[in-house]
Amino acid sequence: MAAHLSLIFLSLSALLVCCSTGAIAGRSVEEQLQQLNENYMEMKELLAAKNRRLEALEALEVEVMEQKSLVAALQQSGTQVAAANRQVTSAVPRSCADLKCKGETISGLYSIMGAKSVEMVYCDFSKATYEAGFQKWLGYVDVKSVPTYFYVQKNNTYTTLSGPIPFELEVVNIGGAMNSASGIFTAPRPGTYFFAFTGEIRFTGPIPSVVAAVVGLQLNGIKVGSSHATDSNTSTSTYSQLALQSILNLKAGDQVSVTIDFLNNAIVYDNPYQHFNHFTGMLLEENLAGLI
Predict the structure, then answer these.
(1) Does position 227 have pLDDT exceeding 70, yes or no?
(2) Which InterPro entries match (predicted)?
């Protein structure tokens, strides 16, 4: 553009000189000097205008370079922000504010991750995050990564002390955590579990005599509960029921079993037709803190 302006300026200057020469040919010396002076001033003004245009052009070029640099910086910043947003939005939401950051705009029920379990909340996205009612807690969501529940029975009489009671009949064993042959349940996931045992004791002592039995619930080989039955044996067919329930917080790998801790002229009685002894357990609530 500068070269183009220079060419125009030279053409105008040549034209001006030609016109001026023809115009002053028949004038006096004073008139000729006056005309030449006017021509000089006109050329000077044209040159000044040309310089101003060149300076404006240079300033424009500098501004264009600055704009290019700014655009490049904004593009780089936008890439970094997008990457940060992807990292944030890929995380598990823990509040309605997190959901809003992920782009949710429709008010309604949402599942979020609490301290140990999945929770249900109502998010009102028409409100600001700091306003009352933006998030309303409703309750817990029953999420289990490994559904776990079992029900086993005995088929025969048992009299062995201390060790876990084995069970011959596996009615239900969802998750496979209960080893009925060994009588040991192994927790697959941390959480809160429920266990229950009911059994039948047959007293076999001489008549008359005092008979007794104790059944215990063990966690990793340590007794956490017991059930006791005692009676005065007055016939050859005296029976008593034992019952034991417990709710335990377990870690993954913890083991639970039922044991016979004491027998005095008594046996844990059963047969293949009636099934008097039952052991059940289930995962009530899983601790999901370490899963996500």
Answers:
(1) yes
(2) C1q_dom (IPR001073), Cerebellin_Synaptic_Org (IPR050822), Fibrinogen_a/b/g_C_1 (IPR014716), Tumour_necrosis_fac-like_dom (IPR008983)
